[in-house]
Amino acid sequence: MAEVYNRTRRSSSIGGKLLRSGRVLELPIYWLLRTSDLAREGFENSGSYRFADHIYRNRASGRYGIGSLLDCQLLRMRAVQAFRARFFKARDELSAFLQQRGPNARQVDVLSVPCGIPRELVDAAKTYGAEGGALTNVRFHAVDLDREVLQNAVAFAADSGITLLPHQGDALECATYQGTFDFVTSTGFGEFLDDLKLTQFYSVVFQLLRPGGVFVTSSMRRTSVAGYLLDLAELLVHYRTADEIAAIAHKAGFANVKTSKDKSGIQAFLKAVK
């Protein structure tokens, strides 16, 4: 079976793996971490949309009392706060894009891929509306491989009065999208793609963007503690610098490329204009 890159991978028994590999002293750390809802989601459903959204919501929760306390400490980690910064970046770039286009612009199509819980779209729409913007000429789209994820995304947007148009399929296939777009956001996906697949994904986005369209995405660098936890959760992450994702964007066809970083320097952001 061909590997599918935007499907959440369910981890094998991490506790069993630690035992088999003789890493017995790490078992208490693993079981303690499992009391945190964030860590447990990472262990059980590596790279899941719920894991990302837990960080974006920034609300601690867990089991047995200690789990919530531990969850709170995990959310305060520098690497986790940097992870959350990519949500802020996507949200703020979309909000600024909608403001720039203005209420008299032609139909604007906005996409999140893979969408998970498209909090960046909903929060940007709320911000734009609160500042007097009208969403009558804006259509919001979501792409994901998982039907249940799309259903949850549509319901989440509907709770805020926003209609989300779902597209189910592989993010690396042009046929999935069924249209063209003015703004595309994708955070937390490229980290699971090797350079060849990431170039393919960026190329797909380039083809789907209308002239003047904007693509916002991210990458991350490794930190010692976060890297250990990601390794423990059996997550294979591809770490890249801002210059590296910029080079891939150029290779995919983008000429107008800008990069930036969060305040910690852990997350790199790419804004590419077609």
Structure overview:
The protein is α/β, with parallel strands linked by helices. The chain has eleven helices and seven strands. Strands 3-2-1-4-5-7-6 form a seven-stranded mixed sheet, with helices on both faces. Helix 3 packs antiparallel against helix 4, helix 6 crosses helix 7 (119-130) and helix 9 packs across helix 11. Mean pLDDT is 87; it is low at 1-11. The longest helix is centred in the first third of the chain and has 24 residues, at 78-101. It is globular. The protein folds into two domains: 14-76, no CATH class; 80-273, Rossmann fold (3-Layer(aba) Sandwich).
The CATH homologous superfamily name of the largest domain equals Vaccinia Virus protein VP39
Largest sheet entry: 7 strands, mixed
Instruction: List how many beta strands DSSP finds.
Output: 7
Distance between the termini: 34 Å
Uncertain regions: pLDDT < 50 for 5+ in a row? Answer: 1-11
Q: What spatial form do the alpha-carbon principal axes imply?
A: globular
* Annotated CATH architecture of the largest domain: 3-Layer(aba) Sandwich
Write the H/E string, N to C. HHHHHHEHEHEEHEHHEE
Question: In which order are the strands of the major sheet placed?
Answer: 3-2-1-4-5-7-6
Structural class category: alpha/beta
Q: What CATH first level of the largest domain would be assigned?
A: Alpha Beta
User: What percent of residues are in strands?
Assistant: 15-25%
Share of helix among residues?
Answer: 40-55%
Quickly count the helices: 11
Structural domains: how many: 2
Roughly how many Å is the radius of gyration? 19 Å
CATH topology of the largest domain: Rossmann fold
Return the average pLDDT rounded to an integer. 87
